[in-house]
């Protein structure tokens, strides 16, 4: 399965930004087939085919913006995953705002994750092994494994969702919606919650 230049850029850029060496020089390498690859290594060592380094002064800024977008997309997906795993009552106003603002970021995150998995067969094999081990973390490639209450944090799901929306989409929340939601959060009684996996026990 071949990958498009834009897809190759996304996969390589996301991987690069996970690196802790923030001060490393970032290079833009263009292969003979026209693919752009961003790396902190010399082009000859980072690409499977012949390539040359191309000057790109704005690369660091663009990669930083891509990383910020990827973090937002993953946060949307993670909260939605927790909603699907928890029997937690959440205000309908909060659900509607979350659905409106996170529908596209969630889809984009899933699309990029699937592309990253299939772009490298070795990575896909490693992921398959992790699925068998059923690691207790909320990651896309481990989404089918059962999760503990400590990881899902169902009791904090409503407040976590509201905090996330305020931090990232404050301008999209209407004043009357905000007032109504915060009133209910302050005065509503405590709710009992459980995970879907625990309900099966």
From TrEMBL:
Residues 181-201 are annotated as: Disordered. Residues 1-24 form the signal peptide. The keyword Signal applies. Residues 16-58 form the DUF4124 domain. Keywords: Signal. InterPro entries: DUF4124. Residues 181-194 have a biased composition (Basic and acidic residues). This is DUF4124 domain-containing protein. It comes from Undibacterium squillarum.
